[in-house]
Specification:
- It comes from Sesamum angolense.
- This protein has a domain of 123 residues.
- The protein is an all-alpha fold.
- The protein contains five helices and two strands; from the N terminus they run ααββααα.
- Helix 1 packs across helix 3 and helix 3 packs antiparallel against helix 4.
- It has a two-stranded antiparallel ribbon.
- The structure holds zinc ion.
- Zinc ion (ZN) binds next to loops.
Length: 178
């Protein structure tokens, strides 16, 4: 017998409490939970704080823009010489953004989480048409800016384990400056 330790907080809401002995969370599920917490925190930090029932698609759009500051995808501005180049030869000062694919996946997870937390599908702000429009705009503008419309990215050359690479470096350059 496996005594599964449940860290899962009990949901008092929602009619069907069918999954009592829940298996360990999948990557998707734990990511969804993290996203949901992040979004909840974001709403709380608004002035005045926004409750979930007040939340509508504008809050979601603001949330998506807010997330851009943590993005890791270079999106060239129109004035940049590398605009439209998939592989710029030099760095530039264009901002980093959230890749539209990450945002798209995020919205999918939050949309599901909203309904799991008792939200009704009819009022689900994540399913709002305005979000879809926004995501499509982000997708199009990023595709243009980066010059990679719908082409698959080539797989990056795999690098050996960092430790190994480091060892090789040591072998190649045995004389280390003290
Ligand atoms: Zn640029």
């Amino acid at each position: 017998m496996n005594s599964s330790s449940t860290i899962v907080s009990k949901d008092s809401s929602g009619g069907s409490a069918s999954n009592q002995a829940s298996p360990p969370l999948s990557r998707y599920e734990s990511q969804k939970r993290r996203d949901w917490n992040t979004f909840g925190q974001y709403l709380k930090n608004q002035r005045p704080p926004v409750s979930l029932s007040q939340c509508h698609c504008n809050h979601v759009l603001e949330f998506l823009r807010y997330l851009d500051q943590f993005g890791k995808t270079k999106v060239h501005l129109h004035g940049c010489v590398f605009f439209g180049q998939p592989d710029p030869p030099a760095p530039c000062t264009c901002p980093l953004r959230q890749a539209w694919g990450s945002l798209d996946a995020l919205i999918g997870r939050l949309r599901a989480a909203y309904e799991e937390h008792g939200g009704s599908p009819e009022t689900n702000p994540f399913g709002n048409g305005a979000i879809r429009v926004y995501l499509r705009e982000v997708k199009d503008s990023q595709a243009k800016a980066r010059g990679i419309p719908y082409k698959k990215k080539k797989k990056k050359k795999r690098i050996n384990h960092p430790l190994k690479a480091h060892d090789e470096l040591l072998i190649k350059n045995p004389k280390q400056p003290a």
